[in-house]
């Protein structure tokens, strides 16, 4: 048969050989694909640029065994403090889990700074460190006449004594967790029992058993004694729909509650522009449908309606094609170091901490190892509102009332701070626990390229000199963000390479809206269907203890004024020429040293040591330059104004006194008639301030009339307030001339630039060949939600 011929057998053999070869090739290809698949990550990693180094920065955030003068209380110190306090039978302290308004318990503990002279003797003269002490605030509600007592307890970590610092009237105490919880439960139940049906009909929701349609009393307005005319503790509780975000869903209903120990009574009721003397009176008017009462009808927001108040992406989103934002990186690692709470950067070094009551504080700030500032610290955040609704009309807030320190937490990498920042926690000893409550990411520290020159000059033509020189403005920023319920305050402490310090405050977050009514129109604009955005004034108080070439300083203003002189170069024999001049004005006393900004009388504000002058006889000074000022328009002595007497001045200068620690206190919101801290008295004693240790008290502020673009939250653009501490004849020249992040370009031959250029870069000229480290924040918060959201441990007050 033909199929069995030799030719046929040879053909079959060739096909079998080809098939075998093809099979081998296919197997080889499959193996190659598998090898490549499993090796792809390694191959890609080898081609991927390396991650930028982090080897240069020395970052040690561990608690020190022997904390420095300015370090916050350590865990070891808190344990020793607890052991001592709860062993003192005379204090009669109850455990945090058992606190009531009528018990004695620890409300707050924080570091008590030593006397400045003792601290400087240690820092400058290598004398022993002063004993570390704590100030302990105890609410003594179980005494026959309840009071608040502050004790100095020490030495830490094993205290042996406590000394009374001051006693404060019990009515002045902040609203704390036991009181807030008790009064809130009571008024919620009473309002539901007496007026629940009226509220349901008016607002489409209930106070109790409300499922996903709830009414809540969350925001409060303190009624201080100067406002009420009586020494009583009264608070307005506002009603809101409980949806995101409730401050943009206010309702025109509020209760004025009198708090007397554990006895809480409702004094007044406000509903839709009308005032009632009790819940019963309101319910009677409502149920009888009396002609005088105009009923309100506002439906509970559904998901679509509440969109205006929700912080979520809107459509159509932009850009249409997503591209990542520009980022800054640290190509050679961190150029600053942290040990505990001590920072070193370029020519700077300083300490910092987070005061539980007052927020961020910086100490012993040095440039080229010379102390410029002993202390810079936030003292108070105040907001003064206006309105027709009494809950808004009397809303003058002093935010130390809620403790500023614990409101600083949960900074988010890539948004609140650069991804490459160092994030630092803060701990507080509060009423909720015997253990320190730790808030992660309370501070961030980072270098920042401002992407503009710190200095530059371009001499283009040969006639002008033919050169270019410029320096990048790269700064170190210590940042914290304080969220007081609805408003978020960003605080930056910025260190420039030329010896300048900038302190900046920016407000963002939700406005505190008012239920709309025509009566609110003089105080703000209607921003949405049911809300008004009322005018308010933000005020920030700072303490700046300058030590310029030591503690023996003077305060001088350079007063700028117009002058005219004969103009002999004019054909008019009577011609005058107008210009400006300045006069040196040494301020000799505290009353003579207050400063209120006046465009007609501009001034430079200088601090200096008279014995330290340069070769030309000029004082080696530091200048205070303020760029964020607003005037408090409430007349002096009226209402809550005395508690903010620091706001009467953009700057006041006083002689340093250890007892004049702060311009405000956590009692300010209740004690306006007779403030615990009467800042005006710092000035009224009119101490001489020539050749003394001087303190500057700086007020920044901004009037805010909300507009629709403040929905859902106020943007930060244009809301910056800042002041600078700037060298003024202090150095022989700009000290940043020694900084290496500069460059110069000049011709090799000034007569013929075509012969080539000399390009001088004083830093490392090698090209950038690394990527920033990956941002692992998303994974971290999934593992530990407490980094960003409350995890069951409450910190600070209930509000």
Automatic annotation (TrEMBL):
Q: Give every Copper amine oxidase N2-terminal domain span.
A: 77-159
Please give the cofactor(s) recorded in the UniProt entry for this protein. Answer: Cu cation
Q: What is its EC number?
A: 1.4.3.-
PROSITE patterns, per database record = COPPER_AMINE_OXID_1, COPPER_AMINE_OXID_2
Report residue spans for region: Disordered: 770-799
The membrane-spanning stretches of this chain are 17-39
Keywords of this entry:
Copper, Membrane, Metal-binding, Oxidoreductase, TPQ, Transmembrane, Transmembrane helix
Compositional bias, Basic and acidic residues, is annotated for: 775-785
In its record, the post-translational modification comment is:
Topaquinone (TPQ) is generated by copper-dependent autoxidation of a specific tyrosyl residue.
How cofactor binds (record note)? Contains 1 topaquinone per subunit.
Q: Which domain of life is it from?
A: Eukaryota
Where do the Copper amine oxidase catalytic domain residues begin and end? 328-737
The record's similarity note reads: Belongs to the copper/topaquinone oxidase family.
Protein name (database record): Amine oxidase
Q: Which organism is it from?
A: Tegillarca granosa (Malaysian cockle)
The organism's taxonomy opens as:
Eukaryota, Metazoa, Spiralia, Lophotrochozoa, Mollusca
């Amino acid at each position: 048969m033909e199929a069995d011929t030799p030719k046929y057998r040879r053909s079959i053999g060739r096909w079998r050989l080809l098939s075998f070869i093809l099979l081998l090739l296919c197997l080889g290809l499959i193996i190659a694909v598998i090898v490549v698949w499993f090796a792809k990550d390694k191959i890609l990693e080898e081609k991927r640029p390396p991650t930028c180094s982090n080897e240069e920065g020395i970052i040690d955030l561990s608690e020190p065994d022997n904390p420095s003068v300015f370090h916050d209380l350590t865990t070891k110190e808190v344990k020793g403090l607890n052991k001592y306090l709860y062993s003192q039978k005379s204090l009669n302290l109850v455990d945090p889990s058992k606190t009531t308004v009528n018990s004695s318990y620890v409300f707050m503990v924080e570091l008590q700074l030593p006397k400045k002279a003792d601290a400087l003797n240690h820092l400058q003269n290598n004398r022993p460190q002063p004993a570390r002490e704590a100030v302990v605030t105890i609410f003594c509600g179980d005494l026959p006449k309840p009071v608040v007592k502050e004790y100095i307890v020490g030495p830490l970590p094993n205290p042996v004594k406590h000394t009374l610092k001051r006693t404060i009237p019990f009515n002045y105490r902040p609203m704390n967790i036991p009181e807030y919880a008790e009064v809130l439960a009571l008024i919620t139940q009473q309002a539901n029992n007496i007026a629940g049906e009226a509220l349901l009909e008016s607002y489409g929701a209930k106070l109790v058993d409300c499922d996903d349609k709830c009414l809540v009393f969350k925001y409060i307005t303190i009624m201080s004694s100067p406002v009420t005319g009586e020494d009583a503790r009264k608070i307005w509780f506002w009603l809101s729909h409980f949806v995101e975000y409730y401050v943009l869903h206010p309702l025109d209903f509020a209760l004025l509650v009198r708090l007397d120990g554990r006895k809480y009574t409702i004094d007044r009721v406000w509903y839709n522009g009308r005032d009632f003397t009790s819940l019963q009176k309101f319910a009677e008017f409502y149920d009888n449908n009396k002609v005088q009462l105009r009923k309100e009808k506002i439906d509970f927001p559904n998901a679509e309606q509440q969109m205006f108040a929700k912080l979520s992406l809107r459509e159509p989103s932009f850009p249409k094609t997503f591209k990542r934002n520009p980022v800054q990186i640290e190509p050679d690692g961190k150029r600053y170091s942290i040990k505990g709470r001590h920072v070193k950067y370029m020519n700077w070094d300083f300490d910092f901490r987070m005061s539980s009551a007052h927020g961020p504080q910086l100490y012993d700030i040095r440039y080229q190892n010379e102390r410029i500032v002993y202390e810079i610290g936030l003292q108070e955040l105040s907001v003064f509102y206006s309105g027709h609704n009494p809950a808004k009309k009397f809303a003058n807030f002093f935010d130390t009332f809620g403790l500023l320190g614990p409101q600083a937490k949960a900074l988010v990498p890539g948004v609140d701070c650069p991804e490459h920042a160092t994030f630092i926690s803060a701990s507080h000893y509060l009423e909720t626990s015997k253990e320190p409550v730790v808030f992660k990411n309370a501070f961030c520290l980072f270098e920042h390229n401002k992407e503009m020159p710190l200095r530059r000059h371009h001499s283009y033509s040969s006639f002008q000199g033919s050169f270019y020189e410029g320096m990048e403005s790269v700064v170190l920023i210590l940042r914290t963000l304080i969220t007081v319920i609805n408003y978020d305050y960003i605080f930056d402490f910025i260190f420039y390479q030329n010896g300048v310090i900038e302190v900046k405050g920016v407000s963002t977050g939700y406005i505190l809206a008012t239920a709309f009514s025509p009566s609110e129109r003089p105080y703000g604009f209607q921003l949405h269907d049911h809300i008004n955005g009322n005018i308010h004034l933000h005020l920030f108080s700072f303490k700046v203890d300058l030590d310029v070439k030591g503690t023996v300083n003077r305060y001088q203003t350079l007063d700028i004024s117009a002058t005219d002189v004969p103009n002999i170069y004019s054909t008019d024999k009577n011609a005058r020429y107008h210009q400006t001049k300045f006069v040196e004005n040494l301020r000799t006393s505290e009353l003579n040293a207050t400063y209120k900004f006046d465009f007609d009388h501009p001034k430079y504000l200088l601090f200096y040591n008279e014995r330290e002058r340069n070769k030309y006889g000029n004082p080696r000074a530091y200048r205070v330059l303020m760029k964020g000022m607003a005037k408090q328009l409430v007349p002096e002595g009226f209402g809550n104004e005395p508690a903010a007497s620091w706001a009467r001045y953009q700057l006041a200068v006083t002689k340093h006194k250890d007892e004049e620690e702060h311009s405000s206190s956590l009692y300010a919101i209740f004690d306006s008639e007779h403030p615990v801290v009467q800042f005006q008295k710092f000035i009224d004693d009119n101490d001489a301030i020539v050749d003394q240790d001087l303190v500057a008290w700086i007020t920044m502020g901004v009037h805010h009339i909300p507009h629709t673009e403040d929905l859902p939250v106020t943007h930060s653009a244009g809301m910056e307030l800042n002041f600078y501490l700037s060298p003024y004849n202090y150095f022989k020249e700009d000290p940043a001339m020694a900084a290496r992040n500069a460059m110069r370009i000049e011709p090799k031959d000034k007569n013929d630039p075509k012969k080539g250029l000399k390009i001088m870069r004083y830093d490392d000229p090698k090209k950038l060949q690394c990527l920033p480290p990956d941002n692992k924040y998303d994974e971290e918060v999934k593992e530990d939600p407490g980094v960003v959201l409350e995890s069951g441990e409450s910190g600070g007050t209930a509000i």
